[in-house]
Specification:
This protein is of the alpha/beta class and 620 residues long. Among the domains are: 46 residues, no CATH class; 155 residues, Rossmann fold (3-Layer(aba) Sandwich), CATH 3.40.50; 86 residues, Luciferase, domain 3, CATH 2.30.38; 130 residues, GMP Synthetase, Chain A, domain 3 (2-Layer Sandwich). The protein is built from 20 helices and 30 strands. Strand 5, helix 7 and strand 6 form a beta-alpha-beta unit. The relative contact order is 0.07. The model has no long low-confidence stretch (mean pLDDT 90). The structure holds 2-acetamido-2-deoxy-beta-D-glucopyranose (3 copies). One 2-acetamido-2-deoxy-beta-D-glucopyranose (NAG) binds next to loops.
């Protein structure tokens, strides 16, 4: 009898998981995520209690002590162990502290490509309690000065290969009293000091943690530039706790301590640096660092370095799928890919072509306060809702009018949450658990990302600018970024990137880029509404030359419309939908219109050109 009861009870226990599974097929993954999330919460609260704050640098030092001889960075034909990187960073810290007179709280701009030095210079600055500002190494002249001035850095450290770019802006930097160091052994330009020789001579002895004694979890640690939704790049403030949160994504995605990660994304962005390098430090794994993405060398590198984890953003996996098929496509050790922005169709293609690789989509803006992770591997989803997540953070999808480009309000003037399964604008409440640090020295742009009085008077939300949909199972799907991209010739055109480029031309004061429909063509072709600086004229040749040298052909605006005033939407973004509908017909639009004539310039748009395009005589 007793045996029978025991037997029933045991079988009952055995089928319990099965029952749970039928009720919720993602039960085990949800459970695993719950455990991870709780562990992370516990660790973060432990760090919080420590003074000085236990930051990622401390974790790095712990890894150095635990596994000094483990390879940390593999780069081209060189390799560096955890201990070597630590010593290199000590030398840099000493050289910069002696010659750059840096102290806790100072900001240093780093203008450097993807190379191992990037990592140890950042570690060095962190050891000194300084804030690093990562400049995009592709920018030049005015954009470079703009980004540099965003963060009020006192010192610039630049790669030797970027010397020309630095010399171009040197007079302005010197006027502002900025110290400029170049990573080479000598410098014969007045105002540019060599740093590599100083680093070589410096001692590699550890630095006192006292140097960063005042750092807290909320102290700014990094400035990372994002385009946000409009205008010039802005420096998102990344504090120490945010570094932790993003670093933990690797654990959530399933990275193990014996993995080898391939980092080819630019280190000046959060994907490459925070998710890639910082995540690797958290796990104590090996990083294979690449100067830049190369679709044709990608898998050879993975084979050469025994890579097991890769990252992706946007279209990178698409580019891999577009390479010619090879017999050894499945011959590699990659088992996990994590990142953001893979399209559902590419996802399926990718798996079929390159084998059984677990794909983990993560969603979140560099400056955003709440994100999602698709820890179930559901094709096409950018994340999954989780009850812990819902308990800890208040977020919502609100109804959005894409015509008027603003949220729909109810009779009392508040936003309306969309029902499950419908698309809405993702907003997340700003609070202690979900802070929004904003953009450095840019109160106006910071304010623009905030929404007030969303559901009740006085509440405050972060406006992601993304339209999402959440299905009945809690999977989150990306629908659109408001007014930010359009497709032309099968390529995504990022309007902010094009606008940023146009702003670099002398005569342009403001630029608003959007896509217009052309009869007989798929997608939308680029058009820009420009506001010209006072007392200047539209310089078609200059804009043409700039656009030709800096933008791929599919992203070059084919039409330009000159406006006296930029029309803004209710949420202070340039109006795009209405302009896109108005198109480029000179018979209808009274503003001056220009047309990009191949191999020539922007020329005034005529009725004749308009008709030829309509009749298909001019192919765009
Ligand atoms: C840390 O803060 C204390 C008190 O605010 C100050 O006296 C000290 O100089 C600071 N230390 C550094 C390294 O800035
Ligand atoms: C990759 O793995 C193979 C077999 O496990 C090993 O022989 C080889 O040395 C490894 N390559 C590198 C670069 O570690
Ligand atoms: C523009 O120039 C390129 C190369 O110089 C040439 O291949 C192309 O046909 C030209 N396009 C037109 C419309 O003249």
């Amino acid at each position: 009898m007793i045996a029978y009861i025991l037997y029933t009870a045991l079988t009952g226990l055995a089928i319990l998981p099965l029952l749970l599974y039928f009720r919720n097929p993602y039960f085990f993954q949800d459970l695993q995520y719950t455990i991870f999330a709780l562990k992370i919460a516990v660790r973060l609260s432990k760090f919080k209690k420590q003074t000085p704050y236990y930051c990622l640098l401390d974790r790095f030092l712990e890894q150095v002590a635990r596994q000094p001889h483990k390879k940390f960075i593999l780069f081209e034909e060189s390799s560096y162990t955890y201990s070597q990187v630590d010593k290199e960073s000590n030398k840099v810290a000493r050289a910069l502290s002696t010659h750059g007179h840096l102290k806790e709280g100072d900001t240093v701009a780093l203008f450097l490509g993807n190379e191992p030095q990037f990592v140890w210079i950042w570690l060095a600055l962190t050891k000194l309690g300084c804030i690093s500002s990562f400049l995009n190494y592709n920018i030049r002249s005015k954009s470079l000065l703009h980004c540099f001035s965003c963060c009020e850095a006192k010192v610039l450290v630049a790669g030797a290969d970027l010397r020309d770019a630095v010399e171009e802006v040197l007079p302005t930097l010197r006027q502002q009293g900025v110290r400029v160091f170049i990573l080479s052994k000598d410098s014969n330009v007045e105002g540019i000091e060599s740093l590599s020789d100083q680093i070589q001579q410096a001692s590699d002895q550890p630095l006192s943690p006292q140097l960063r004694a005042n750092i807290t979890r909320k102290s700014p640690a990094l400035y990372i530039y994002t385009s946000g939704t409009t205008g010039l790049p802005k420096a998102a403030v990344i504090n120490n706790e945010k570094i932790w949160r993003i670093s933990f994504l690797q654990s959530i995605a399933g990275v193990r301590s014996d993995d080898i990660i391939y980092v080819y994304l630019p280190l000046y962005h959060s994907a490459g640096f925070l998710m890639g390098v910082c995540g690797a430090i958290e796990k104590g794994i090996t990083v294979v660092l690449k100067r830049k993405f190369s679709a044709s060398n990608f898998w050879n590198d993975c084979r050469k370095y025994n890579v097991t984890v890769i990252q992706y953003i946007g279209e990178t996996l698409h580019y891999l799928c577009n390479t010619p098929k090879r017999d050894n496509d499945k011959d590699h050790k990659v088992r996990l890919a994590f990142g953001n922005g893979i399209r559902a169709d590419i996802w399926a293609d990718f798996l079929q072509r390159f084998g059984d690789i677990h794909i983990c989509e993560c969603y979140g803006a560099t400056e955003g306060n709440v994100g999602f992770v698709n820890y179930c591997g559901k094709v096409g989803a950018i994340g999954k809702e989780h009850f812990l997540h819902k308990m800890s953070f208040k977020y919502a999808l609100i109804r959005y009018d894409t015509e008027k480009e603003e949220p729909v309000k109810d009779s009392r003037g508040f936003c309306i949450e969309v029902p499950k399964g419908e698309t809405g604008l993702f907003v997340a409440k700003i609070g202690e658990r979900a802070p929004f640090s904003g953009y450095a020295k840019n109160a106006q742009q910071t304010e623009r990302k905030k929404m007030r009085d969303v559901f009740v008077k006085g509440d405050l939300y972060f406006n992601s600018g993304d339209l999402l949909r959440i299905d009945n199972e809690g999977f989150v799907f990306f629908q659109d970024r408001i007014g930010d991209t359009f497709r032309w010739k099968g390529e995504n055109v990022a309007t902010t990137e094009v606008a940023d480029n146009l702003l670099m031309v002398d005569c342009v004061e403001e630029a608003n880029v959007y896509g217009v429909k052309v009869p007989g063509h798929e997608g939308r072709i680029g058009m820009a509404a420009l506001k010209i600086k006072e007392n200047m004229d539209f310089d078609g040749k200059a804009v043409y030359q700039h656009v030709k040298s800096y933008l791929p052909s599919y992203a070059q605006p084919r039409f330009i419309r000159i406006q006296d005033v930029m029309v803004l939407t209710g949420t202070f973004k340039p109006m795009k939908v209405k302009l896109a509908e108005e198109g480029f017909d000179p018979g209808v639009i009274s503003d001056p219109l220009f047309y990009l004539e191949e191999n020539k310039s922007y020329v005034p748009m005529t009725q004749e050109i308009f008709s030829s395009i309509g009749e298909g005589k001019i192919r765009l």
